[in-house]
Amino acid sequence: MTKNLGIMEEYEILESIETPHLSYVLDTLMDRKKTARNVLNRKTEDVLLIDKTGFYIDSIFAGLSEKSIEYFAKHAPMEYKKNLMEIFRDKDMLDSMWETVKSMDDDEGSGTISNQDRIKKVIQYIRDNQIVFVT
Amino acid sequence: MPEISSQNNTTFFNAQKNNNAGFFAYDLQEEKRRIALGTEEIKNELLEKWKKRYATADIFPAPIAAMHPDVVDFLLSFNLVSVYDDIARQTNLDARGRNVLPRIVWEIAKNKNWNGLNQALISQLPLAQSAHATIAQLLEQYVISKIRALSEKPFAKKTISETEIRKEVQLPLSKALQQYPKLGEQNITVNPLKLRYFQNSVRPSIKNWITDFHDNMSAGKHGAIDRGNYLFHSENGKKLTPIERQKLSVILKSLDEQTSLSIDVDSQSVVFQNSEQITKENVPPRNKNFGATTGTEDNYFQIPKSRPPLGSDNYSNSFQDNENPHFFPEQKAEDISRDNFKDFPVAGGKLSFSSPQTFAVERDTNNVNEKNFSIGQQKISAQPSSQTDKISPSLEQPVRQSQWTIKPPVYSREETSIEKQPSQPKINKNIVDLRN
Question: Is the pLDDT of residue B425 over 80?
């Protein structure tokens, strides 16, 4: 270990990289938005560092960008992709994801729909390329 | 931090002006930089590990994996979403019709059926003939022609070259140091070491740790207990975090018992397994029983979630406060009975160690001795309790379970009266005793 970090600091950083969706305290909208922003602000390759179980979680999906979903489609193992597709079978998860995204837009100012647009495009991309997401 | 003097405030404030560290010697920018650097390092480590783990994983279903990688790459570019949108807009296709387009393109690319576009459109899009022609023309222009060109390029299937797979060998430390001299320079902990016979602090490299170990415990072979003592009680060892201690214990074990270590040949460094594996090897089975090491797949730290947060009053990194300390990494649970402590440095029935810290067992023994001493010549009913005859391997209450049941002196004085009224509770003040 060469990092100049305390053990708890290292643990917290690891958690925020690998399992940001497990950092919810009360599963509030604020928690979900925080996680979505964590994912949205990542470099594309860092998205794959999220544990595969995170990809059917609303807040993780809400943070996917055009670039990250493309990278995901091209590099993520099938088990990750399978998990991502699970979210489309879970209506509650999808509703919660849209709620998160709309709230992210509200935070950026009334009338903003940039995050909703982003997610619509991500979903359209997955729909267009379903063939690589399902076995 | 500058001294605060009421007589010389000017000096203090000038010092503050020049000192970014601020009033409490806390430099926020420096802290942010440290965390950012640490985060970057962790990310790089995780990425490397991720790539290694999924080096042979299936990225695509078999039919797609068989396609030309450049074609797949092109078909998966995000820009195609807007290309399909544009085609749909130009040809007045509804959402359903638009979603058929990429499906048709994938089919054509997969089967290399370059002339099948018209047929596929007719069968899957119930539109007028002219509309089919326009769609086919646009798809041909923006997508199909490019796919055809890419698929004609020669390609070799990606295989994992040997250099991509890290070469690791299993060797005991002494042999590894002979074969890979750079290995000794690998830092295994963070803080610098204070060597006994060297004035300055030195790097926490493997070589320096071995030097310190031999300075403290003498050269030659050592047992698990010696190593445990060194890891927890030596000047340098007691400052270690649990993970660092585990790493060091793996190194020292290999040094003493010639156990094999994973050596990365390229970087000439010891590859430490993740802490879960380290724990499995080194932590006594009793810890495993209590789920101390359970966690996520790559739980590096095995810190139980219930541990008080850093900075809180209850937090302590010292092994004394740890409910589940790894005193002796290789010690077996069944060895933790009182009878089996004869190998310990025992003086007059009391365990002794180099540090004032005491083990749970020691504390029990001390309690008994202290009570014995304070009661003096009074007759004490001290009988071995059948339940606690042996020290329970349970770590939930390691200290509170005593081997001896001791009646306090006050009972022995009032023994008869207590025996006469064995279970009557004391009635205080204005509570009416309804039993009478």
Answer: no
pLDDT at position B395: 39
- Distance, in Å, from the CA atom of B133 to the CA atom of B19, rounded to the nearest integer, reads 75
Whether B347 has a pLDDT exceeding 70, the answer reads no
A27: DSSP letter: -
- CA–CA gap between residue B273 and residue B64 (Å, rounded): 35
Query: Per the CB < 8 Å rule, is A14 touching B189?
Result: no
CA atoms within 13 A on the CB side of B112: 10
Tokens 């190593």 found at: B227
Non-local (6+) Cβ contacts of A126 within 8 A are: A69, A73, A84, A85, A133
- Start-to-end Cα distance in chain B: 72
Determine which of A12, A122, A132 to mutate to test the interface with B (most B C-beta atoms within 10 Å). A132
How close, in Å, is residue A108 to chain B by CA atoms? 25
What pLDDT digit, counting tens, does each position of B244-267 carry?
888 888 888 888 888 888 888 778
Cα-based distances in Å from A9 to A20, B275, B302: 15, 16, 14
Q: How far is CA B235 from the centre of its chain?
A: 24
| Residue pLDDT, tens place only, B330-344 | 334 344 344 443 443
Please tell me whether residue B417 adopts helix, strand or coil conformation: helix
Nearest chain B Cα distance for residue A76, angstroms = 6
Q: Which residues of B touch A69 (CB under 8 A)?
A: 78
Q: Domain locations in chain A?
A: 7-134
Q: Tell me if A116 sits within 8 A of A101, measured CB to CB.
A: yes
Residue A98 has which token pair? 């849209």
Q: Rounded to 5 degrees, what angle do the CA atoms A95, A99, A100 make?
A: 120
pLDDT tens digits for B408-422? 444 444 444 444 444
Residue A134 reports pLDDT greater than 90: no
Q: Which is higher by pLDDT, A53 or B340? A: A53
What is the reported pTM?
A: 0.51
Dihedral sign (CA B196, B250, B206, B319): negative
